[in-house]
Amino acid sequence: MSVPSIVEWINQTSLSVAIREGGLPYPVIGGLHLLSIALFGGMLLATDLRLLGWVMQGRRVSDVMVQLRPWKWLGFVVVVVSGFLLMWAEPVRLYQSPSFWLKMALFALVGVHAVVFRPGVYRDPERLDSGITGQAKLAAVLSLLLWAGLVAAGRFIAFDASFDQ
Amino acid sequence: MLNHFLHWLVNSPWSHAINKAEWIFPVIQSFHFIGFALLIGTIAIVDLRLLGFGMRRQEPSELAADLQRYTYLGVALMLITGLLMFSTDAVTYHNNPAFQFKMTCFTVALVYQFTIHRWAVRAGSGAIWAKLAGAISLLLWTGVIFGGRMIAFV
Questions:
Q1: Residues of B near A (CB-CB distance < 8 A)?
Q2: ipTM of the complex model
Q3: pTM listed for this prediction
């Protein structure tokens, strides 16, 4: 099965048609995507900026990371699920969008980031309470850059078509 | 008077500059998104605390004081990038019902943030009205976001 035929198949599923042509569902899912960007992005910023020592310096690193973690995860799940639905609704347009593929490449790098830094940084933040390691600071900087890139790539998807002219 | 101002914005040098190259608008929008993540994210940490969730080992007032600088930074980023985007097509935005809804929610949310919300944070968590104060704040910012998304669809 070739990729274009998969794209065509997704495009014809009833879920795809329902979101694409249903009127309200598309902007509502888009709104949920934005809302979860605020939640996830906010938790990510608080966590990473704490690792850099720029915010909540008086609170223990583990206090910040452990207590915000469930909300960060909630935001992450909603942002991924709503993003998946938006993709499912418009597979043909996104397949042809360079910005979409850039966004997916950055998303893959987020996975690599997690594999690389989870053991030493995110898994048990109590170890960072006595001092934030260079590795933790590097993880924070890379995480902020990756997610800022994801936001920008996502925004550019809407403008791809206008660059062709 | 207002119409005059809107046209002045549309014809401003920055409006022309943004309209000149296709990539500038999405870049500004990206900063707008990062701004609202900063603004709404930091407020949400305090709101969740008022509701009894999240950073429960700290008092709401401690969290608000910790995060205030970044909340302000978020407000500044949102206002600057928002005004720039508004300038490129001010009359259309002004007449857009979703934009009007968004700006109403935004104005109420901002006034609320610096009055009732501030008093609730100072009073601490636990009481039912502290929870109410946090819930209203989250609801107002949700209105801002959904209103913003709908601008392109109405």
A1: 22-23, 25-27, 29-30, 33-34, 36-38, 40-42, 44-45, 48, 53-58, 66-67, 69-70, 141-142, 145-146, 148-150, 152-153
A2: 0.93
A3: 0.94
